[in-house]
Amino acid sequence: MGTRKGSVTIKDIAKKTGISITTVSRALSNNPHVRKETRELIQSIARKYNYVPSYRALSLKTNRTNTIGIVVPQLTHEFFSKVIRGAERYAQDNQYKVILCPSNDSYEREVAHMERLLNGRVDGIIACISNETRDYSHFTRCVEQDVPLVFFDCVVEALDVPKVVLDDFNAGYQAVKHLIDQGCKRIAYIGGPEHVSVNYQRYLGYKKALTEVGHPLNYQTIVHCPTDHRDHGESYTQNLIQAENIDGIFAATDVLAIAAIRAIKAKGLKVPDDIAVVGFSNWTIGKVYEPTLTTMSQPGAKIGGKAAQALIQLINDPDENHSRRIIVESDLLVRQSSTRLTRSR
Amino acid sequence: MGTRKGSVTIKDIAKKTGISITTVSRALSNNPHVRKETRELIQSIARKYNYVPSYRALSLKTNRTNTIGIVVPQLTHEFFSKVIRGAERYAQDNQYKVILCPSNDSYEREVAHMERLLNGRVDGIIACISNETRDYSHFTRCVEQDVPLVFFDCVVEALDVPKVVLDDFNAGYQAVKHLIDQGCKRIAYIGGPEHVSVNYQRYLGYKKALTEVGHPLNYQTIVHCPTDHRDHGESYTQNLIQAENIDGIFAATDVLAIAAIRAIKAKGLKVPDDIAVVGFSNWTIGKVYEPTLTTMSQPGAKIGGKAAQALIQLINDPDENHSRRIIVESDLLVRQSSTRLTRSR
DNA sequence: TTGAAAGCGGTACCAT
DNA sequence: ATGGTACCGCTTTCAA
After folding, report:
1. How many CA atoms lie within 13 A of B16 on its CB side?
2. Could you tell me the pLDDT band of residue A318, with boundaries at 50, 70 and 90?
3. Is the CB of B15 under 7 A from strand C?
4. Which numeric CATH code is attached to A67-166+300-328?
C-alpha cells in the first residue's frame, strides 16, 4: 500500500506477483520488452487493485507538473472569468491543470503568488498585472529562473515574453468613430485610471477619432476616474453633464457606461437621443439594461485560450521566439444606447 | 544545479561548501543542532544562489501537495466566481493553492476532472455537482480512496461528507412571505429545473408560504423552466401573464426575475405596481436594473470560505465528524421591484 | 525478456 | 554538532 491510504504502488504489485519492479513499470507503460502474458497479468492485477500512478513521484522524476498558474487581478469579474475559462479549457484539452492566483488587485498578493509558484510547482505562468503593481521584479525573477511566462491584457512591456492583448487603441477609435457617425459633435471620454495602459490606449483611440474629423478636444470633457467603480462613474458623469454640453460619451468600461446612463437619466435626459453612449467590454448587463448598451467586444475566452496556447508552446519549446505579441481584435456591437439615426421619433 | 534550469539544490550547496547534505538540510530548516556559524554560512550561500526548496521533492517526501481541487459547474457565473474567491482566499491564508476544475455542466468533464485529481495531485476536493450529473460513482470513489471531500450548493446527500449549503427552503419561504406582506394575492413561481435540489427547495418554500396563509395553489402559475436562461424566462413569463391574472412573481434566480420583468414591461404592465417581483441570488445586475431588484442574498464567498475551512479541517483531522451540514443563511434584500406599500403614487 | 540499482530532491533516523 | 544512508514512487540505464 502506498501512502495515499488505499492506494497501491508499483512496488505492491511487484511484491504481490513476485515480478520485479522494473518489469511491472514496463508492463504498465506498455513497453514492448515484456512478454505478453506477463504484461497482461500485471495489468489485470493493477486494474483489480485500482492502481493509479503517483502524480507526486512522476512529477519529481520527470520534472513536469502538467500544471500552469494563472495570475489575475480579479476573479469575480466578467472579463477575467472568461479569460480563465478559455485558458482552463485549452489547458485541459492539453492535459494541463490550472492553479488559480487571484491578486485581488493587491501588489503584495501578486508577489506572494509568484513566489509560491517559482518552486517547481508549475510548468509555466499566465499573468495579468494588477492595477497597483509598479515594480515588476517578481516577473523578472520568473524569467531569470527560466519559468515560462505569458502576459495578457495588462502586460509588462519591458519583459521579453509573449503577450496576448486586445487592440485597445483601435477599439477605442472605432467606438468613438461610431459616435461621430451617429452625428455626435461633443463627445466626452470617461475611463478608469490613466496609468493602466489599456485605459490609456482606449483614450488615445478616442483622441485620434476626434482629431481625425477635426472635432476640438475639450479637456473639460475628459475624465480619468481613480477607479472604474459605478459610484465614481455616476458622480463624475453628474459633474460632467452639469458643467458641459455634450451629446455623446465613450466610456472605457461598461460599468462606467451604465453608471453614466444612470446619471444621465437622473438628470432627466434621454439616451441615446440627448446623449449617446458607447461602453467597452460587452458585459452581460449591457444586453439586458434599458437601453441596451452599445459596446466593444472583449473576447476573454479567446484571449485566455491564446495565452494558454502560447504558454504551452513555450513550455514545450523554450527557445521559440519570445517577444511575440498576439493581438486579438475587438468588434463594435451596436445596440440601443447609441443608435440615434434609427430612433423612432 | 537542479533540473529547473538555474535552480540550486541542497546537494549543490553541500558540494560548494564541503558540508554534508544532512547538515545543509538542517541548517536551512533552522534545526538547532547546527552550529550558529555553520548555519549562517549555509544560509548565506543559499540566499546568494537563490536556493528554493523543490516543491516536487517535498510533496513526494511528505505526501502533501498543499493543493486543493475545486469542482464547479460554471466559471463565468457570479455565484460560483464568488465561491471560488472565498475558497481561494481561505486556502491561501492557510498555505494552500487551488486547482480549478470547471465541469461546464458536463457530466463527462466532471468525471474527467475527478479522475485526474485522484492520483495524489491534491490533498482534498471541494465540489458542487453539475446539473447533468445523475451518477455519483466518481465521488464515491473519491471517498473510498480516502481523499477528503466537501460538497457545497448542489450536494450528493447520500455521501457521508461535510456539506455547505444555503437554506434554500427557508429563503424561498421568506421571499414569498415578503410578497404576501406586500399585498400580493396571486403569486406565481418561476424557477429552473425541478430536479436540481436547490430549485426544488426554493419551490417548497414558496408552497409553504402560500399554504400557510391559505392562498390557493394554482399549478397554472407554477413554472419549472428547463434551464434558467434569460430566453426561457422571458417566453415562459409571457405565456404566464398572458394566461393568468397574477400580481406577484417569485423567481428562483435573478436571471429569471429580470427576464420576467422584461416580459412584464413588454406587455405594458408595471413592476411592482401591477406585478411585484422577487428574485434570488443578489446578482450585481439587480442593483443597477430599473427597477432595482428585490432578491434573496446568496453569499458565495462565505460558502466558499466555509467549504475550504471544512476541507482543510478534514485534511488535518480525517477522523472528524464527516456528515456535518453547514448551513448558511440567506437574507431578504428589499428593493424597488417589490415595494408596493411604499410606492409613491 | 527480466532484474538490480541509481537517481530525481528532499527529510529523518542512526551513528559518530 | 555533523555525517551516512535509507526512503518517498517511479523511470531508466546497464547487465544478465
Report:
1. 17
2. confident
3. no
4. 3.40.50.2300
